[in-house]
Design goal:
mainly alpha, 11 helices, globular
């Protein structure tokens, strides 16, 4: 890295990053690395460099551990909610928190790359920026999907009951929750272009999840926390998830307003920051 670089990367963490740039010269029978035919190879490089298997194991352990503590063996676990039980609701809550956590942590690094000029280094390699971005997106999606499948499988193996309708709808809510987490992580990475961004994302995601009612229903908290929870970024998404379990077809306007305001606000700030860096 040259000395005149305005925002040099952290050399401790970038030694591993440089491995992804170590592409051997393709043979005559291979496609060039800037070809979409090699998206699988680029995706695998992105996955194993940025989404380390031990990190994925940790992300998977969190929802399973929390579900085991709060959802299994409790006297309220088998209370019917309509489409599932309270145990099933807790399982999905923990999975929603972890999906947001995973997506935010991974995209926080993308924001850091944008801020520190790493994408300019990628431009010096055979990888095109479009291929690189696509590989990162797919690697993130695979991480969230693998964690969700493992968590749901563990829940069903321990006796969780859930209708097919609730299963499909809950997975859909998890997808849009992951997208929100990705925007949140990208914003954090752009505002804090350092390795500290992931730590802030982790702590921030936990606090947001607590005050949004993911770990403990807001109805069991004080009046102040209940009112505060309605203004939390993940409150609307969690309420939407809960609605899939009790056959709610009409949701309060506060839920839609919460999701719309926070999504538009964070996405608008991200786009503004990216535009400012380009100019």
């Amino acid at each position: 890295m040259s000395k005149n670089n305005d925002s040099p990367l952290n050399t401790k963490t970038d030694n591993k990053t440089l491995k992804m740039l170590d592409f051997p010269a393709p043979s005559k029978n291979q496609f060039p690395y800037n070809s979409w035919q090699n998206l699988g190879l680029i995706m695998r490089r992105c996955f194993f460099v940025w989404v380390h298997p031990t990190t994925l194991i940790l992300f998977t352990f969190i929802p399973i551990a929390c579900f085991s503590i709060f959802g299994l063996g409790q006297e309220y676990s088998n209370i019917d909610l309509g489409e599932t039980t309270i145990a099933g609701s807790i399982m999905c809550n923990m999975c929603q928190y972890s999906v947001v956590f995973v997506a935010a942590c991974i995209t926080a690094r993308i924001g850091t790359e944008q801020a520190t000029g790493w994408t300019r280094q990628i431009a010096l390699t055979p990888i095109t920026s479009r291929l690189y971005g696509t590989g990162r997106v797919i690697a993130t999606a695979i991480s969230c999907l693998a964690m969700t499948i493992i968590t749901y499988s563990y829940g069903f193996a321990t006796g969780v009951r859930m209708s097919a309708k609730a299963l499909i709808l809950s997975l859909g809510v998890l997808v849009i929750s992951a997208l929100f987490g990705a925007v949140f992580g990208l914003l954090t990475g752009l505002l804090i272009p350092s390795d500290a961004a992931q730590g802030i994302v982790g702590g921030g995601s936990s606090l947001i999840a607590i005050f949004s009612g993911m770990f403990t229903p807001l109805e069991q908290m004080g009046a102040f926390v209940q009112k505060l929870g309605e203004f939390m970024p993940m409150w609307g998404y969690n309420q939407l998830l809960q609605a899939t379990f009790n056959n709610q077809t009409i949701l309060g306007w506060k839920i839609y307003l919460n999701m719309a305001v926070w999504t538009v606000l964070l996405l608008g700030i991200v786009l503004a920051l990216l535009q400012r860096k380009k100019s």
